Amino acid sequence: MVECRQCQSVSEVVKAGFLRGRQRFYCKTCQVHFTVELPAASPQKAARQTTIIDIAKSLGVAPSTVSRALNGSTDINSLTRQEILRVANEMDYRPNLLAQSLHRGETHTIGVVIPNIERPFFAGVLAGIQNVATEAGYRVMICQSNESHSTETLNVQALIASRVDGLLISHSKETTSFEHIRLQLKKGLPIVHFDRVCNEVETAKVVQEDFEGSFALVEHLIQQGCRRIAVCAGPPQLLISQTRLEGYKAALCHYGLPLDDTLIYHTEFKQSESLTALNHWLSLPEPPDGIFAIHYGNAIELLVELKRRKIQIPTEIAVVGFGDELIAELIEPSLTVFHLFPFEMGETAASLLIDNIIHRDTFSLIIKKMRGELRIRKSSMRL
Predict the structure, then answer these.
(1) From the centroid of its chain, how far is CA 368?
(2) N or C: which end of the chain has fewer CB within 10 A?
(3) Beta strand residue intervals within the chain, DSSP E
(4) 7-27 pLDDT, tens per residue?
(5) Which superfamily is assigned to 210-341+374-380 in CATH?
(6) Which among 218, 199, 373 has a CA at the least distance from the CA of 288?
(7) For 135-168, how does the pLDDT look when each residue is reduced to its tens digit (9 = 90+)?
């Protein structure tokens, strides 16, 4: 409570803005204005966030004046703006980002759907996405499909309900229907596919050198003297499985080696299935002398099992895998791989999506291919 400087009245004194850093008051009894030093703003209860109205009441100004000051408007006296900002800071004011974004029709948030967040590859992609998004002023919402089509569809619906400005997606191994993507494209949502893409919908895409990398790995095995090369081919419905298998076949054809269907074994990226594939190959009248796994994880599992059975690597069977992580280099013998650059893939995908969000009237449908490199290690070095 403030006492009038002239008549000492208290009940008839009201706030009337402020002047040169001092709170201005008006006494209704004697009809005079006077000022006092502004006290420190009272902290708000933790249970409630400070609002623009709270700041306005504290200073005796209109909420619209506070709003303009907080938004950097130039039509307010500089001293008034300074006092509003000072009190807002003392009262721990935080803007309501959701309300602001809804007012603008955007949230500056991008959604990401990945198959498995535990895989180092996707962790690297997410790091790249986050790096670009943060620099561009975007937040990232991440969902994991856990290799389930139904979960992937629910993920997309949840992100749309959260009003994301765009979507980055790498499909689950179960996904063969893409209606949940088509629906959002029809609504004008910018979407970019990465790694596990589909050709049934027209979006921008960021892919690996799936064909080229597979060709290089199989070519390397052939150059090391392998003539019966088996392939752990992954889920047949997955586009990357199909493309990497084509690279395998092209390398055999290029070097004049026959294609033997008994050496092609599709799995679901599970350890039990890769070991079943190995049992199948070793039971053949002519077992393979080389194995190409389209996923490095399966290649590592095969290495461990071959060692357990005391089969010499690479002299009896050489092994290579598509993709890489630290364990592939540390295992004995170290695994020959086609090395990928997931961080750069994430950066590229995020940059492409944000560009499409900004220029949503002219979506880019570009397909960008990320370069990889063959890294030869002990698991295949016969010569």
Answers:
(1) 17
(2) N
(3) 13-19, 22-27, 32-37, 109-114, 139-144, 166-169, 191-194, 204-208, 229-232, 264-265, 290-293, 318-322, 336-339, 367-370, 373-375
(4) 777 777 777 765 655 677 778
(5) Response regulator (3.40.50.2300)
(6) 218
(7) 999 999 999 999 999 999 999 999 999 999 999 9
